[in-house]
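Task card 7
Instruction: Convert sequence to structure tokens.
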Amino acid sequence: NKKPEKELQTALVAYMKGLGWQVEVYNSQATMTSYGVWKNQTMKAGTPDLMGLLPSGVALAVEVKAPSKLKTFNNPKNQRQIDFIKNCIKMNGFACVVDSVERLEMIFRNWSALSEPEQKRKYLFEMLP
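Output:
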């Protein structure tokens, strides 16, 4: 299931950069070395897939899930990731979990239309899977 997620990640980054967002891809998963040993990445577990800044300076954190796999975000083993996304929202950042460019576009459009920080936070919490 990794390939569809990586393909979506590429499309999301292109969309975000097209909007002028500063965004980078982060990978906190362990990988297997050529010697058959699992090696941890330098990113802390729970780091979302995409992070950066909106042109307004607002922090950005997006967790990417393969199409139709949004519910996997709530897996108890993802608690650090859940906490990271929720803390970003609590601190008035733009954070969400998406499985398509269209979902990101819809969440961002609706979030941008809100004016009060409390409304923005409430909306992003409602959009979490």
